[in-house]
Design a protein that fits this description.
Mean pLDDT: 88
Pfam families: adh_short_C2
Number of strands: 7
Helix content: 40-55%
Low-confidence stretches: none
Family: Belongs to the short-chain dehydrogenases/reductases (SDR) family.
Strand content: 5-15%
InterPro entries: NAD(P)-bd_dom_sf, Sc_DH/Rdtase_CS, SDR_fam
Length: 263
């Protein structure tokens, strides 16, 4: 069994990755996970500059760089990808994770369209821009890369008491992945998504206005498995999709929720 450890710990050996929304939560834990699994470099992209710079510094300037990027601005996404390739020579992994959440009780019949537009700008349009420019860089560089998008358990179900805008935006992510996976397969570029259940991230704690320990108690109710879904559970799933262990997996919606949703 010990012979397997070096292989497992180095399954991303030499790869260069971008993590959008990497300053905290699932993005931060995934960036660290990529490094732990042997990635040569990880570029963290976010709009939370102080947090992003702190995370990059803690990982180490020789392995991690922070770049400010608002994914709603396509020019910034394009620059992010170009800067990564300029610094490290290639792009192997794009974890398109930046997103915003609503815990609203809005029903379809009384949607706030202005809030709807803001949500889609990040969760759908920003995701599409990230996939577009990562795929172009991989194609131009002859890299058989992996693109992973963060969707949600609500990408495959509705939410009876509200959250219509959020649910729609995550369904859009799943549609993007299914289309892009077919269109990019000929270049050896895989496109998948990970759909987490409710995780006690800083974003969710802020939205609920509750301390993490309280949120974690709530999160436990969403799992059929014993224990609590954490950022590390999601990061491990992303690392699998990023690695050559999943070299024949594309177009997949990998649900990580402890059995809350069973398709």
């Amino acid at each position: 069994m010990t012979d397997l450890v070096p292989t497992i710990k180095n399954k991303l050996h030499g790869k260069v990755a971008i993590v959008t929304g990497g300053a905290s939560g699932i993005g931060e834990v995934t960036a660290r996970n990529f490094i732990d699994h042997g990635a040569r470099a990880v570029v963290i992209a976010d709009v939370q500059d102080q947090k992003g710079q702190s995370v990059a510094a803690s990982i180490g300037p020789d392995r991690c760089t922070y770049i400010h990027c608002d994914v709603t601005d396509e020019d910034q996404v394009k620059s992010l990808v170009e800067s990564t390739v300029s610094m490290y020579g290639r792009l192997d992994i794009m974890f398109s994770n930046a997103g915003i959440a609503t815990l609203s009780s809005q029903l379809a019949i009384d949607l706030d369209i202005s809030a709807f537009d803001k949500l889609f700008a990040v969760n759908a349009r920003g995701m599409a821009a990230s996939v577009k420019h990562a795929a172009r860089a991989m194609k131009e560089g002859g890299v058989k890369g992996s693109i992973i998008c963060t969707a949600s358990v609500f990408a495959s179900r509705g939410y009876a008491t509200g959250g219509t805008d959020y649910t729609m935006s995550k369904h859009a992510v799943l549609g993007l992945v299914r289309a892009a996976s077919l269109q990019l397969a000929g270049y050896g570029i895989r496109v998948n998504c990970v759909s987490p259940g409710m995780v006690g991230t800083p974003l969710i704690c802020e939205k609920l206005g509750a301390p993490k320990e309280v949120v974690l108690k709530m999160v436990e109710k969403f799992s059929k498995l014993e224990g609590t879904l954490t950022e590390k559970h999601v990061a491990d799933a992303v690392s699998f999709l990023a690695s050559d262990e999943s070299e024949f997996v594309t177009g997949l919606d990998l649900i990580v929720d402890g059995g809350f949703v069973v398709p």
